Amino acid sequence: MARIGQLRREEKWSASRIAFELREEGPAVSRRTITRHLAQLGLNHRRFIDPNGETNREVKTIASKHPGHMTHLDVKKVGRIPDGGWRAHGKDSPEARAAARTKTRGARAGYAYLHSAIDGHTRLAYTESLENEQGPTTVAFLNRAREWFAKHGIVKIERIITGNGACYRSNAFAATPNGTEHRRTKPYTPKHNGKVERYNRILAEEFLDARTWTSEQQREKALETWNLHHNYHRPHGAHDGKPPASATPQHVNNVMASYS
């Protein structure tokens, strides 16, 4: 155990690497055993190795060089809102009784799929609420997103970054790039697509959970207003407090704030 602790502290190696070195030095020790010993020594997390938290990993940032260089795509699945309910329309209202009958039949509201595309350089984001996350649906969304970005001066998307969902691995999506490089993130590593993941969090905190919705139609309509607010008025830290649209080639910054 002393040798395991020494290699961990001095070399900052993982359990797999320590197991390899010990096998070269003498009796083999399994990776699982080394992991258990590291936990007993209090060295199972890298931040525990040094008091100042230093590691031997080189932090690499994913930076977009110019508008259109990298566009990040993702789908956020959210529960659909039943069109009715006594909390929204009052007890014994026609809408509440219709919702109760639906619940009695065992029907479910299902899910809405929020497809989002965000430009990695300007943080300009486009979101739609769609019925599913299948390949053809995702391809149609990407085509509309291309048109929307083009209106803001981003006429060419050089690289698309996505997760490993079925829609992004489908044959339909594979045929779409049309000269655009498609890269999928490493499995179980959402930080590689961090810009759209962070946008999904903003979307949840400032839009989905910011108010009470009475119907799915109401939320879908409000999503159009959210697209305007996020891109033209919401301040962004990457642009010194200016909205994402200010960094586009068109420099759009005169959209009315009333959204009406």
UniProtKB/TrEMBL annotation:
Ranges of Polar residues composition bias in the record: 247-260
PROSITE patterns, alphabetized: INTEGRASE
List this protein's GO terms for biological process.
Answer: DNA integration
Gene3D superfamilies linked to this entry = Ribonuclease H-like superfamily/Ribonuclease H
Any one Gene Ontology molecular-function term assigned to this protein's record: nucleic acid binding
Query: Where does the record place the region Disordered?
Result: 233-260
Query: Where would you find the membrane-spanning parts of this chain?
Result: none
Q: Which SUPFAM superfamilies match?
A: Ribonuclease H-like
Q: Where is the Integrase catalytic domain?
A: 78-251
What is the superkingdom listed in this entry's lineage? Bacteria
Q: Which NCBIfam families match?
A: transpos_IS481
Know the name of this protein? Integrase-like protein
Q: Please tell me the species this chain comes from.
A: Actinorugispora endophytica
Its ancestry begins with: Bacteria, Bacillati, Actinomycetota, Actinomycetes, Streptosporangiales
